[in-house]
Specification:
Length: about 190
């Protein structure tokens, strides 16, 4: 009786090894076969298990970053500032905007959001309009330097996002600004 159990166990194990070997062979054959219509230069990617929206976003960001040339990585440029009740660009603002234009022309995948800000003086409506004019003046200057207007979005925060909370000219001067937010890929509704 003992010998019968041993023979059955041996047969079962042999079948199991045979089935596993066949399965491995089939997987190798599937990996070797390329789907029709896929160009030679396209490499198949490893499947990545994604369980949360945050993980999915992280995977997408890493994939996007891997496609961005080093010189086109998102850069940070200084803010530009404005005189009281003005949206006129000064020489320093034009210098910074010229650097931004050069960067954007070199990197066609980069999209820009220009945020217009104001100090606390004036009504909310007035400051929203002034912040809009400031952001759009910077956009017009960039477009005049050859940047595609479809790659630039503007928004006004008026007085809603101050950098400084004191009630004096030094503080107000910091709040009268345009800030630049860059993105690579699809963002800002573009």
């Amino acid at each position: 009786m003992e010998r019968g159990k041993f023979v059955r166990l041996f047969v079962i194990l042999s079948l199991l090894v045979f089935v596993m070997a066949c399965a491995k062979s089939q997987v190798k054959q599937q990996q070797a076969a390329k789907p029709s219509g896929v160009p030679e230069h396209v490499k198949e990617k490893e499947e990545v298990a994604v369980t949360t929206p945050q993980e999915a976003k992280s995977v997408m960001e890493k994939e996007l970053e891997s496609r961005v040339p080093a010189e086109c990585e998102v850069r940070h440029f200084p803010m530009i500032h404005f005189a009281f009740d003005s949206y006129e660009l000064n020489d320093e603002a034009k210098r910074i905007l010229t650097e931004i234009a050069e960067y954007m022309k070199k990197c066609p995948g980069v999209i820009l959001l220009i945020e217009g800000h104001c100090d606390e003086r004036g009504s909310n409506e007035y400051n929203l309009a002034l912040g809009w004019k400031r952001a759009n003046e910077a956009k017009k200057f960039l477009v005049s330097l050859g940047v595609d207007p479809d790659r630039i979005t503007t928004i006004s925060y008026g007085e809603e996002k101050p950098l400084c909370y004191e009630h004096n000219e030094a503080c107000w001067a910091k709040n009268r600004r345009d800030e630049f937010v860059f993105c690579v890929g699809k963002c800002f509704g573009k």
